[in-house]
Amino acid sequence: MELSSLLHDFHLSSSSEKPLPCSSLPPITELLSRLQEKLIGASSDSETSSLIGRVERLFQTADPCWLFSANGDEEWAELQAAYGALVGALIGCAALPPCEDDCGSLPASVYQSIPGRAGPVCSALAALLRTVGNAGCPTGLLLAVAAPVCVFAVTHFQDQVWTSSSSRAAAQSLQEVLLRAGGWRDSSHLLMGDKRREEQGGEEGRRSRGLLGGILDVLQPQLTKDSWQRCEAVKLVFSWTLLQVTRPSLSPHLSHLLPPSLLLNDHYRPENCILGVRCLHHIVLNTPAADLRLFNRAEVLYQALFKHLYTSETAVIQPALSCLLDLLVVLEKPPLSLGPSSSRRTSCRHDDVLRLVLTHMEAEQKVALRRVYASALPLYIDRMGVAVCRHLRQVERVVLGYLEVRDPPEETSRLNILEVLKITTREAWPRMACRVDVLLRCLLKLLVAVSSDSGLSVSVRQTLMNQTCLCLKLLDGCCHGDVQRLLQQVDSSCCSSEVLSCLATVTVTNS
């Protein structure tokens, strides 16, 4: 009765008094086209809601043989286009309003009606997907609607100002229905597919295709330089998509993934910038080095990330330093891996990054930034190996400066700087003997200060003192026992028993 009434309303049937047999029904493409026109032209929320409900009931009650009736490739292509257009019209009923300028954000009040629209749309789309999955339709029909449905679901299952708890639940349910309809295990499998089965060809191979390409095609018009900021959701959907794709599936789509990531990375708003750096780091980790070096991509990434080292945003510098560390091995061999050479080693990008980091560390006063720099420095020093000798003066100044300043309650900066000193001493030990005097005074002052600092927990204080003693042992080894002889001259009346006990471990162990 519902179907006959719907056909009568659209003048596709002369009677609505009894159900029509499938043989008497008009082509489904005609009804889909009328529904699309009605959804687009709806003049009120009540009319839109009524239409969405009728679309849902159509997919729930109509005969699948009629819903998906087509003969030959031409009719199947027409049917896929009709369903794609209807899905687009349904999604448009809950589309987010665009920003009028490039501010990229709107007040929450603008989105007030979106959750109420998104729920019914999710239900209607889920009804379509269940019917498609149960009817055993050719894969092409599912793939024609799966990408825009996935984008819609991802847009609305995130905790944002345009969603509510009920709309998020409906979108999450829609995503689960989509996975079941296509036989995908999870979202990553949905995006990447199964390459081995895809290579087999046939219907099974088509079912094993991922949706990454289709989703990027849906997002592409909104990911240009002039349009990406006009919709708050597009960057979230893009990043959600990218961060679930790993090698080897990422590399073939690099030309579509890299430009939006760079746009986010270059934005002035920190939250966009952080998201961009995260996307770029994921690309670096999941793309073969040869593909990154192709077309000078790696150099472009390096320049885009290097400029972040001049910012004072802690949340930006931390991921940028981490990403740069992984990117540098794509651009050049680590200095540590280079063999001996008769000529003077030329400066490389590793040197440039380390030099700038050390320069900023010397002048930095903000505690949060000091912690970020101190946590990243050991990894860079370790990567440099013996080549750190070129930076020893700066490293020494940073070590001395950071060990003098408290960083309660965990003392992360001091502990990381002690790690820097240990790595530097091991790698550049022939150059450390001339620096023993100044470093020894600094380490002894640190021991005395830490032992009397009641603001530190016992575990933190003990860790600091143990690491300091380890640095003393390493310095003693590189200067052939000079530290041990100097420690024996320490006036026991000026030190606590705890400090003397630590010093005793240095002298006893090396005696």
Walk me through this protein's architecture:
By secondary structure, the chain is mainly α. It contains 26 helices and no strands. The chain has helices at about 1-10, 30-40, 45-60, 65, 70-90, 115-135, 140-155, 165-180, 185-190, 195-200, 200-205, 210-220, 230-240, 255-265, 270-285, 290-295, 295-305, 315-330, 350-365, 365-385, 390-405, 410-425, 435-450, 460-480, 480-485, 495-510. Helix 23 packs antiparallel against helix 24 (about 460-480). The longest helix has 22 residues, at about 115-135.
- Biggest sheet record: none
- Could you estimate the helical fraction of the residues in percent? 55-70%
SS field, number of helical segments: 26
Span of the ends, CA to CA: 98 Å
Series of secondary-structure elements, N-terminal to C-terminal: HHHHHHHHHHHHHHHHHHHHHHHHHH
Overall strand count = 0
Mean pLDDT: 88
Helix vs. strand class: mainly alpha
Q: Name the poorly predicted regions.
A: 14-20
Indicate the radius of gyration in whole angstroms. Answer: 32 Å
| Outline type | elongated
Q: Characteristics of this structure?
A:
mainly alpha, 26 helices, elongated
Itemize the secondary structure elements and their pairings.
Elements: H1 2-9, H2 28-41, H3 45-61, H4 64-67, H5 72-92, H6 114-135, H7 139-156, H8 165-182, H9 187-192, H10 195-198, H11 202-207, H12 212-219, H13 232-242, H14 254-265, H15 270-285, H16 289-293, H17 297-306, H18 314-331, H19 349-363, H20 367-384, H21 392-403, H22 412-427, H23 436-451, H24 458-478, H25 482-487, H26 497-510
Helix pairs in contact: 2-5, 3-6, 5-7, 6-7, 6-8, 7-8, 7-12, 12-13, 13-14, 14-15, 15-18, 17-18, 18-20, 19-20, 19-21, 20-22, 21-22, 22-24, 23-24, 24-26
